[in-house]
Amino acid sequence: MILKQTTRGDIVILTITETSELGINNTEELWKELLRIVADEKTKIVLNMKNISTVVSRTIANLARLTEDLRKRGGDLKIVVDEDSTIRGMAESYRVANLLAIFDTEQEAVTALETEGGK
Predict the structure, then answer these.
(1) For 9, which DSSP code?
(2) pTM of the complete model
(3) Mean local confidence (pLDDT), 23-41
(4) Domain containing 62 — which CATH number?
(5) How many CB atoms neighbour CB 50 within 10 A?
């Protein structure tokens, strides 16, 4: 897994490449990177998971926890996935679909952060 980080203003965009699955090891690597970004006082994050088709339940739980934390700090996490990704269904089955902001494109996610002020 390769994590590519870019910024657009005060928004950090983290794109996952070179893998289509997030297993336990990849999830831990992703989680550590997200925590590093938050430790740098970045609270507006777009996580581009367009290439990811499969995740473990821990991934969904971690993203829900991070979203709550970022919102308390005045920021937010926006997630980009493929339209037919299993991630959408998992978010619904774990009852966090109303918490996680999931978008079809990176631009939609960035625009939402810009216009909503993070929330």
Answers:
(1) T
(2) 0.92
(3) 94
(4) 3.30.750.24
(5) 17
